Amino acid sequence: xxxxxxxxxxxxxxxxxxxxxxxxxxxxxxxxxxxxxxxxxxxxxxxxxxxxxxxxxxxxxxxxxxxxxxxxxxxxxxxxxxxxxxxxxxxxxxxxxxxxxxxxxxxxxxxxxxxxxxxxxxxxxxxxxxxxxxxxxxxxxxxxxxxxxxxxxxxxxxxxxxxxxxxxxxxxxxxxxxxxxxxxxxxxxxxxxxxxxxxxxxxxxxxxxxxxxxxxxxxxxxxxxxxxxxxxx
Length: 233
Known about the structure:
Elements: E1 3-7, E2 14-19, E3 21-27, E4 32-39, E5 42-49, E6 54-55, E7 60-63, E8 68-69, E9 72-73, E10 75-77, E11 83-85, E12 96-102, E13 105-114, E14 116-121, E15 127-133, E16 142-148, E17 153-156, E18 163-167, E19 173-178, E20 181-186, E21 194-198, E22 202-207, E23 214-218, E24 225-227
Antiparallel strand pairs: 1-2, 3-4, 4-5, 5-6, 5-7, 8-9, 10-11, 11-12, 12-13, 14-15, 15-16, 16-17, 18-19, 19-20, 20-21, 22-23, 23-24
């Protein structure tokens, strides 16, 4: 059974919050906000107190039928509170669209069906990064792409494997997984990829606020590593 937990970087202690996985936090003020998490294929939201690291309201379901592939929930929320998700029946095929979550319900965002996976919203909510699985026999399994919600255009970001794209807090860079480690690249595609860490099966999860460190999870391990080899300017 999976559980959402809070971790204090000051005391190095953890608290179990609720059954579920794939937690995402959206700040409402400097002291509290909302914690979104997944249980089964349902997304829940609960009020979360930053100081005590505890839930202050009962979780409420906000979305059903989320696409979940081996605990890999197709959901993300930006720092500004904009959320995207994929819903549907995975057994019926792997082609989906990407929708924006709104108070009125799901609204189409990337409307052309495709093998999109692991959507990630930029901090300002204006761009969505995701991976597209490449055809069988290609040199790489998948590559990272970006959809601009204002220009309504899609552009390719990586060309030699780019899985699980994750935005830096300032939106200027994207970290992603390749076969031999973690990389990052300018989100506008104006630079080549920079290798950050070496090793097989590393999955970037999230950045620290200063973008100098990234949490990553080794495949099939219930642990989280801390990578600090990120370039500084």
